[in-house]
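F.,

This is the one I mentioned.
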């Protein structure tokens, strides 16, 4: 793999893809109400049990994306873009601590806490709620309830959705957008959703 263990190469690859494919067109009114999210138990990259809604979403603005650690195409590029978004948050009017990125595995049978922790390390991400980014897995049947609620359930991890969710839980404002938009697109949506 020509870009293994080189997070900046993933971002360069994403920029190339954006240039070839373009970003998602802007929607006239992108806001929707919250999807019906189950408060299932998940485990983070350190094996800590958390309730998805109560511990991760309640009271926060979030970005939820979908990955699996064995992915060599879409997931690394998406993660590199979101890492850039997180870095930009500290330089913008949106405080990095106010936004939590949540990466949910679509392959819970193979992605346990250790695999998620190693995946984060590949991208030089210090994961954790306090750090603003958490990677989660869970019992497959329970996690499938969450993935279904987010329109991201799949029987084949490689076929998972490349759409991510951005939500302001206190205001119940949500939107979906393509994962391959440029980082500026996400920071702009975060500014708008926080209003």
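My design for it:
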């Amino acid at each position: 793999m020509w870009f293994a263990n080189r997070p900046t190469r993933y971002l360069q690859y994403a920029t190339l893809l954006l240039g070839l494919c373009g970003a998602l067109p802007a929607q006239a009114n992108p806001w929707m109400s919250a999807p019906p999210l189950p408060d299932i138990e998940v485990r983070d990259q350190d094996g800590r049990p958390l309730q998805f809604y109560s511990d991760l979403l309640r009271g926060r603005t979030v970005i939820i994306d979908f990955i699996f650690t064995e992915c060599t195409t879409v997931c690394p590029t998406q993660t590199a873009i979101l890492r850039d978004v997180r870095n930009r948050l500290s330089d913008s009017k949106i405080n990095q601590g106010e936004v939590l990125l949540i990466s949910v595995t679509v392959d819970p049978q193979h992605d346990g806490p250790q695999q998620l922790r190693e995946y984060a390390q590949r991208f030089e991400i210090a994961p954790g709620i306090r750090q603003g980014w958490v990677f989660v897995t869970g019992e497959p049947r329970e996690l499938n309830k969450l993935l279904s609620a987010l329109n991201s359930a799949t029987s084949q991890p490689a076929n998972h959705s490349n759409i991510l969710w951005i939500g302001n839980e206190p205001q119940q404002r949500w939107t979906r957008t393509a994962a391959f938009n440029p980082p500026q697109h996400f920071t702009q949506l975060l500014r708008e959703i926080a209003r």
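The first helix runs from residue 7 to 21.

Talk soon.
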